[in-house]
């Protein structure tokens, strides 16, 4: 009897924070939100997807978002973070990693996110090619404390679990 090797699992954590500024679209979790300010950043500033990217890169041992998509590189100026996440997913697949689940917390005083959390889950699950139920999105306020609490910034924290795909053997 041939014994199959045990699966390898790895977890990662990612975090991001950006200031809110006027004159930018607010992209959060891959979803456009109608709001008077958007997140400053070299790309579209989507703190939620950036945290997910960092969690995935950390779990796979492939570095971080700043190394893969440096703000000094004009190719990533105003980049859509959905495209960045898709690039990371392709790199994970090349290294035989599959995403088991993603858990995401968005820290924002406003806007209220309850009505769009499902859209964010669908977007992230779709980009990663995983089941909707394998993605969780939570929204937290900072109870008026700090830059997030005063509405000057938004942040996100994400964890991800990866499983190494087994090589097929005959």
Any overview of this molecule?
- The structure is a single chain.
- By secondary structure, the protein is of the alpha+beta class.
- It has a single domain, classed as 2-C-methyl-D-erythritol 2,4-cyclodiphosphate synthase (60s Ribosomal Protein L30, Chain: A, 2-Layer Sandwich).
- Helices cover 28% and strands 31% of the residues.
- The chain has a five-stranded mixed beta sheet. Strands 2-3 form a two-stranded antiparallel sheet.
- A hairpin with a 2-residue loop joins strand 2 and strand 3.
- The model has no long low-confidence stretch (mean pLDDT 93).
Concise description?
This protein is of the alpha+beta class and 170 residues long. Helices cover 28% and strands 31% of the residues. The strands form two sheets. A five-stranded mixed sheet has the order 4-1-7-5-6.
């Amino acid at each position: 009897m041939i014994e199959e090797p045990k699966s390898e699992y790895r977890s990662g954590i990612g975090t991001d924070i950006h200031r809110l500024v006027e004159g930018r679209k607010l992209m959060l979790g891959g979803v456009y939100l109608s709001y008077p300010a958007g997140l400053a950043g070299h790309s579209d500033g989507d703190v939620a997807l950036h945290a997910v990217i960092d969690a995935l890169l950390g779990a796979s041992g492939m570095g971080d978002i700043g190394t893969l998509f440096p703000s000094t590189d004009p190719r990533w100026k105003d980049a859509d973070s959905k495209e960045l996440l898709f690039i990371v997913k392709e790199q994970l697949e090349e290294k035989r990693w599959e995403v088991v689940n993603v858990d995401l917390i968005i820290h924002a005083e406003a806007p209220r996110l309850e009505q769009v959390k499902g859209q964010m889950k669908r977007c992230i699950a779709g980009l990663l090619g995983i089941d909707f139920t394998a993605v969780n999105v939570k929204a937290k306020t900072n109870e008026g404390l700090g830059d997030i609490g005063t509405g000057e910034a938004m942040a996100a924290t994400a964890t991800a679990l990866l499983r190494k795909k087994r090589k097929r053997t005959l």
